[in-house]
Amino acid sequence: MKAILKIDSLRKYYGKAANQTKALDGITFQVMPGEFLGIMGSSGSGKSTLLNCIATVTAPDSGSIIMKGRQIRALRGRELADYRGKEIGYLFQSFELLDNLTGRENIMLPLSLHGVPEEESKERLEQLAAYLEIKDVLCKFPAQMSGGQKQRVAAARALILNPGMILADEPTGALDSKNAKALMEKLAGLNEDEKATILMVTHDSNAASYCRRILFIQDGNICHELRRDIPKESRQLFYERIIKVMAQLGGGSANVF
Fold this sequence. Notes:
257 residues; alpha/beta; four-stranded antiparallel β-sheet; globular
């Protein structure tokens, strides 16, 4: 099986000389199709910069990002727009919903932006709305939704075009523990049931415990890796292993199981 994403010697530096910050300092890793991979690290470790480079929000200084065999740093024009809209689905911490659009309109927005007839995705919308339990908010505006509902609407929007990979940037950061757990269960279900490939940046050990593999970043480098492949290992046990690593790196998470 070939990797869906290959990151090779990726570097991104900010500032100059003595004041230079090495956000990414030669990171290399791969993501396989259907994988649920977590990127963890304390604030300033480089994890969000990494996600933004993959999403083409930030341009790296050097290194390569290859998605499905294509070097994305070389994409321009329509190819770049298609990559951003169809190859990746971005799930933000702050939801990024448009306040003047209903839940349904927010979800369907990528279709109009990329010239996809709405009729083609009506069934997809119904499936996502049912799975994410947001049918009752499709006609509501964001101001009428709870934080958990907003994030699940945002998740549906990220998924509506069946992207090759979902990029999730601290998706539980603005949610309380109940809604955070509900969202992570839905993302884990999409990964298991639909084989959705998910790359999630988080500092939350609880959220990370839903992943199958975790890369820990410190000072712009991958310093540790954990896999949830111990026979019959529970999420609780995986969470405890994550906590031990994060404690060594100077981070942690409250237990909300």
